[in-house]
Amino acid sequence: MNPIQTVSLQKNGNTQMLYFTCSSLSADDRRIWLISDRTGSPNVWVRELATGEERMLSRNGVGTLQSYVYFNGTRNTGFGKASVCLDPVRETAYYIQDNNICAAGLDGNIRVLHQVPENQMTAFTHVSADGRALCVPTTDARILDYDPDTEGYGLDQRPVYDIDARVQEENLNSWLHVYDTETGEETLCERVPRCWITHVQFHPLDSRIILYNNEWPSFSCGIRRINLFDGRTHRQLRTVGDGRSAQDWVCHEMWSDDGKHVIYHGAYANGPAFVGRVDVERMGYSEIALPGEYDAYGHFTVSHDGELVCDGYFKQPGDRPPQRENSTDHGADPHVKNAEYISLVHPDWDARTLRWIPLCKHGTDWLGQDAHPHAIFNHRADTVYFSSRTGAYVSVYSVSAKI
């Protein structure tokens, strides 16, 4: 296996990459954008990879904003750790501070594009490939209306109640908000009833088309999770048939670079884990089952040329992964979070086979969202970057993808 390199290590705080639905690296792979709480509150930073110079781009000093996955944050105040996304070409980071939707450039200038609507809760955002549109998903704030001290558990104090059940029973809404990144004008406000949207991704070639999820479905996860809005209509991208069931668990959808396919992973009901791909236009599927012993949660991320990198599932013969209590083990995901490897995965979608090549052990403890590796390729696809907590703090590392 390949040796790992330390990218950003803090002895007085946590440093992690941006969420894997966007790149953390500039288009020329010279800089990496990070989230770090080294000042006592989380902020977005940029690091020059050649020199190690780091600069803070946001100006937050009031903690973490409450949002999806950061359940123990403060309502309407703080930095939205789940909100950061990067335009790698124009090198602009977008994020939410308090109720402001902000854009931060390398020059240190911060622009406020718009405000988050009142009584709505935010989640992961996305910027279009041409840099002209920013999508901010929101949901009625009632979804996280609870006392985390008495009604929450785990590192993130996630609610003990079924959030999706509350959405269904109380007819709560989500919205797809799209903003012009130059003028800040809201160009779309699409209501999606009885849905909890936390992930959004513009089509790589057509920003009128938005891929979005329905988070933590309390029923029919196999078909409710992955959805597409084409500017006019909504449709579910995974249907029942040919071994696919509404009772399956499905997660972490993402576009292929050409926009023809959406890649996702999950687990069959009472069966093995799998990674899948759907042809968006023809609604044709290829799903590849993983070996039965590959039962540890992870994420798959795709490179520009269609190769995959994974931070979970893989095991060597004789491996005995650590066992630990993790608050995120008790959701719909049937897999525990104790995977150890960063692996290249070569899919043959027609033959429905996978070739796994372990690159390194990431060593993270998986305790809380920030410690998930969320491995991604750089733009040249010759290096993989990931987050890991092996001691007191989360840090960022890289490993060569050359084999």
Please describe the structure with a list of short key phrases separated by commas or semicolons.
403 residues, Methylamine Dehydrogenase, Chain H, mainly beta, 31 strands, 4% helix, 5-stranded antiparallel β-sheet, 4-stranded antiparallel β-sheet, single chain
Describe this structure in words.
The chain has 403 residues and is mostly beta strands. It has three helices and 31 strands. The protein has a single domain (4-400), classed as Methylamine Dehydrogenase, Chain H. 4% of the residues lie in helices and 39% in strands. The strands form eight sheets. Strands 10, 11, 12, 15 and 16 form a five-stranded antiparallel sheet that branches. A four-stranded antiparallel sheet has the order 1-31-30-29, with no helix packed on it. β4 (43-48) and β5 form a beta hairpin. The radius of gyration is 20 Å and the shape is globular. The protein starts with a strand and ends with a strand. The mean pLDDT is 96.
CATH class: Mainly Beta
Count of DSSP helices?
3
Cα-atom radius of gyration: 20 Å
**Principal-axis shape:** globular
Strand content: 35-45%
Mean pLDDT across the residues is 96
Query: Unreliable segments (pLDDT under 50, ≥5 consecutive)?
Result: none
CATH topological fold name? Methylamine Dehydrogenase, Chain H
Strand-pairing-aware structural class:
mainly beta
What is the name of the CATH architecture?
Answer: 7 Propeller
Distance between the termini: 9 Å
> Into how many domains do the coordinates divide?
1
Helix content: under 10%
Number of strands: 31
Largest sheet: 5 strands, antiparallel
Kindly report the name of the CATH homologous superfamily: YVTN repeat-like/Quinoprotein amine dehydrogenase
